[in-house]
Amino acid sequence: MRALLSLSFVTIAFSLHSDCYADRPTQIPLWSSGAPGSVERVSEAEKEDLGPGKCNVTNIHNPSITPYLVPKKPDGSPATPTAAILICPGGGHRMLCLGHEGYDLGQWFAEHGIAAFVLKNRLAREQGSTYTVDEHAMADTRRALRTIRSKAKEWNVDAAKLGVLGFSAGGELAALAAMESDDGKTDSSDPIERMGCRPDFQVLIYPGSSNRFTVRKGMPPAFIALGAKDRDDISIGMAQLYLKYKEAGVPAELHVYSNAGHGFGYRPGSNGAAGDWPIRLREWMVDSSILSKN
Q1: Cα–Cα dist 54/25, whole Å
Q2: What is the pTM of this model?
Q3: Predicted confidence (pLDDT) at residue 281 exceeds the cutoff of 60
Q4: What domains are defined for the chain?
Q5: How far apart are CA 114 and CA 85, in angstroms?
Q6: Going edge to edge, which strands form the sheet with 252-257?
Q7: pLDDT at 176 over 70
Q8: DSSP string covering 122-153, please?
Q9: What share of the chain is helix, strand, coil (3-state, %, to 5)?
């Protein structure tokens, strides 16, 4: 009887955690020998806090991306190279919320003709962390963009249609990536570092630290979504940012959901208006000639 109870507990635990593990592709380290500043900790195990609808990860010292690629055509031939999005999950720079702000969305994008890559970056505000947002988390974000471009042919993505999307703290990373980038280091011995890290578009979903964001002409076009019930630096700050984009001539689209607060993310089967923001994003990508209508 005790054995049956134990087996039942394991089965229940697995079912609760399956949203984090089911059919997840293999993650790819961003540096083959470890990230600069983390080489000595590259083999340290990550910590996972799992539960119903929850997949939170900490202790990240070997940053990576998890690819969700667009399936091949029914006859086995590759689809036309498609747009791609780097997803930066939120979590206050203390953890990464990889369920509703990561893997679930990556799968949705792949099913709707957009290649997606979920980022695991180093955490600047985790207890005891020696990392910073600007030095380490942003190095991971830019390295991820370079990596995707370096493997564009292999992954069948259009290197000129690569965007960055971020939630909350990850939205800060996405915005900073759009604000400051480079065309690659042409003299680098590392072929990945020779790739540019400028995103071709940015998607900011209730991003944190909006007071840090600056706007100038020529920045990547932006799609912004947030809840009206969010804290003021987001619900008011992002509306003000939209006006700055408009003044600078940067194409931008703003969605404010009146009944949503912070952290709505993407959850399959959501019935609220805010839950459909990925559909609005895909429509915007079509209108912006990032995606074709088909």
Answers
A1: 18
A2: 0.92
A3: yes
A4: 2-287 (3.40.50.1820)
A5: 7
A6: 28-29, 64-68, 115-120, 82-88, 157-167, 201-205, 222-227, 252-257
A7: yes
A8: --SSSTT----IIIIIHHHHHHHHHHHHHTHH
A9: 35, 20, 45
